[in-house]
Please model this.
Amino acid sequence: MYLPEILLRMWEPYKKGFKAWLQLEKSVSANTVDAYLRDITHLTNFLLENGIQKDPGSIKLKDLELFLRYIHQLGMSATSQARMISGIRSFFKYASIEGFCSIDPSLLLESPKQRRKLPDVLTVEEIESIIAAIDLSKPEGERNRAIIETMYSCGLRVSELVNLKLSQLYFDVGFIRVIGKGDKERLVPIGTTAMKYLDQYIHLIRNKVPVQRGEEDIVFLNRRGKRLTRLMIFLILKELAAKAGISKNISPHTFRHSFATHLVEGGADLRAVQEMLGHESITTTEIYTHLDREFLRTTLQQFHPAFQKK
Model:
């Protein structure tokens, strides 16, 4: 039997078990399962090309480090490398739990440093100009104003916005209940301005829309009575930004970034911002401290006498 056949047969039961573990134990999406299995295929292909005949229990840290060097030399981006390492780590975590590995060789595996791209952030004035560009003579105008006010006031993801329900609005206490990633719930304060325009939309516009079955509890509807799509929100914002003469790359996430950045610039506690954004890890929220430092640096250069040109 040739080496390729031996190695493939050696790894196949582990891959099948890994797939079942991801689906049944971890309940990850089908796309994630496929991606992680491709990662293991990349690893076994590397082992084949280098004549390394090892099962998962025999893999050492140095083997994985050689694999990292290999995918780096292929020209793979740092982001893609980091995502692949995530799949490799998940596999060896499974192998350790099942007892196939006495020591997890991926524990000390370092991901490549990724440069964080600072997203575009809107100023308060730019947000106001976008709202001013809304044509309130049209029924969708009231809806679109309520959408933007809610996005900016609460820092919602676009998926959270389009799935927001009437039963999740608690105007009496100034909060909304949001269903975030992984179906995790959180309570987010909502500003009085956003509540005002939401209330106007719900009672003056939405109650005149013929709501389709299954959408009765959804807040934001199109004229046919169905919930808005993520793409529709994107297109609405793009059109309004163009009308307002804003050239920045605008997306629904821009309002979430702006919400968080303005909070941090105003001195908000990072843990509170993390809670409101629904970030599982504080490290995800920490990008806004970088944005804040950039804001401070720009302000210093613009206004401090020592930085002014002679």
About this structure: The chain has a mean pLDDT of 84. The CA atoms of residues 169 and 176 lie 5 Å apart. The longest helix spans residues 3-25.
